[in-house]
Amino acid sequence: MIYETQPTASHYVDGAYLEDTDGTPIPVIYAATGARIATVHAATPAVIDRALTAAARAQSDWARLSGRERGRVLIRAAQILRERNREMSVLETFDTGKPLQETLVADAASAADALEYFGGLAGSLTGEHIPLGGDWAYTMREPLGVCVGIGAWNYPTQIAAWKAAPALACGNAMVFKPSEVTPLCALKLAEILTEAGAPAGLFNVVQGAGEAGQALISDPRVAKVSLTGSVPTGRKVYAAAAADMKHVTMELGGKSPLLIFEDADLENAVGGAILANFYSSGQICSNGTRVFVQKSVKQAFLARLTERLKGVVMGDPLDEATNFGPMVSEAQMRIVEGYIAKGVEEGARLVTGGKRAARDGFFLAPTVFADVTDGMTIAREEIFGPVMAVLDFEDEDEAVARANATEFGLAAGVFTRDISRAHRVIGALKAGTCFINSYNDAPVEMPFGGVGMSGVGRENAKAAIEHYSQLKSVYVRMGDVEAPY
Ligand code: NAD
């Protein structure tokens, strides 16, 4: 046991913890030490059925409440999350290995923002009145029904809340399956929602890997699937959902460009590149991992970047002085090491990092490659680790064309002091989520999501409402019906 408030069983179904040891055991490994800190069990078909049955029952009652009544529960859950921020942050650190310095400000806090925001919106989810001469029509915004959420391992609390908050605000119920790598945090969110007054069955958590995910998606009781994960998984989930015309939201991977022009404030640009590559040890989908730097400032950029990376404090994630944690798992560390070896082999210049730290756990040093060219593997594939590829460019048109030469389109950023260029470049970049003189800000008020292979749909903001509700149109005739016979 990590500490006394950790989740007490594998699943959370129908308002309570639930264990079923017939499911395959899944070890929970603390990334900072490699030690097993808990074991959960994958959901058996019986657990999945119980969760879906409970969700379907809870949904029909929940949808009958007024939006304001639903919103009140979400806002109360946000308050509890904030009160327990430290406890939730410690659990997030155990689940992912991310340093407490990060989790204290980025995870439960972001989840609370989402619950508060969608809780506030819940009372204003209205349709419209459409005058048609004497007749008229109106629309009603209705819930979809039972939604399934499937999470990645990098932000287990945030991902669960970014899906649950708009889903519940719109009158849906949810069965959430966390990543098998980080199964703990979503359970606490479920517990808190119950405490806040959510009816039993409204938000359920079941564990397991792809098999559990597939079982959920293919169930006819499910109306929608929202996945946060990789492109290959996205393809499978989208295909399975298509069989029954289920709604989908796909938050997938990226290989996003960050363009740094010679007129940029160098200090801010270096800071932006650090945030775009090394926060959460680089395990962020929207990271700007292709850093295009205008040739005239390349040396200065690399010199200042190397200097600032001396401020990295790698160590015990529970020590609040630590600002750089381990990779989430040994498997992920090996994948990233493979990419680093490829970078060297294909002729990129290793400026710093490239090695494991001499300590237990899955620590890889922040790594910067310079002289990277577009065809190199490290410039084309998502690495999902602390590896920055610096590419040079001469002029704007070239930088934009090369930035767009990717199948992904999650995010993009530009650093420049030229206001016209900033907007022109962002206008030309193919990406769903963009930043000017900044990187990776993700307030709940701003839609988040990708184009191309990076995904379908948007999370956060009012845009998410579109993805968790559907319109019913009603034509109202005021006069007699004129039929031909
Ligand atoms: P993954 O695709 O391996 O797994 C994601 C989730 O899908 C897990 O819960 C997994 O168990 C489940 N899954 C796997 N196969 C499945 C199947 N056949 N059917 C149903 N579910 C299945 O991704 P990961 O390694 O957990 O996370 C890293 C990836 O997630 C990266 O590509 C990253 O870019 C992406 N990501 C995207 C966002 C975003 O918002 N766009 C955020 C975080 C992570």
Spatial strand sequence of the major β-sheet: 14-15-16-13-12-17-18
Query: Got a strand count?
Result: 20
Which ions and ligands are bound to the chains? Answer: nicotinamide-adenine-dinucleotide
Strand content: 15-25%
Task: Give the low-confidence spans.
Answer: none
Largest sheet, in brief, is: 7 strands, mixed
Determine the mean pLDDT.
97
Output the structural class.
alpha/beta
What fraction, in percent, of the residue positions are helical? 25-40%
Distance from first to last alpha carbon: 77 Å
Helix tally equals: 16
Radius of gyration: 23 Å
Outline type: globular
Task: Characterize this entry briefly.
The chain has 485 residues and is α/β, with parallel strands linked by helices.
Describe it for me?
- GO terms for molecular function: betaine-aldehyde dehydrogenase (NAD+) activity.
- Residues 20-474 form the Aldehyde dehydrogenase domain.
- The active site is at residue 251.
- This is Betaine-aldehyde dehydrogenase.
- Its EC number is 1.2.1.8.
- By secondary structure, the chain is an alpha/beta fold.
- Helix content is 38%, strand content 20%.
- The chain has 16 helices and 20 strands.
- The chain has helices at residues 45-64, 67-83, 85-96, 100-106, 108-121, 156-169, 185-195, 210-217, 231-242, 266-275, 295-308, 330-345, 377-380, 396-403, 419-428, 463-467, and strands at residues 11-13, 16-18, 25-29, 36-41, 129-132, 135-143, 146-150, 173-177, 203-205, 222-228, 247-251, 257-260, 290-294, 349-352, 367-370, 387-393, 411-415, 433-436, 455-456, 469-476.
- The strands form 5 sheets. It has a 7-stranded mixed sheet, with helices on both faces. Strands 9-8-7-10-11-19 form a 6-stranded mixed sheet, with helices on both faces.
- Helix 10 links the parallel strand 12 and strand 13 (290-294).
- The longest helix is centred in the first third of the chain and has 20 residues, at 45-64.
- It is globular and about 80 Å long.
- The protein starts with 10 loop residues before the first strand and ends in a 9-residue tail after the last strand.
- The model has no long low-confidence stretch (mean pLDDT 97).
- Residues 150-154, 177, 179-180, 209-210, 213-214, 228-230, 233, 236-237, 251-254, 285, 382, 384, 410, 455 line the site of nicotinamide-adenine-dinucleotide.
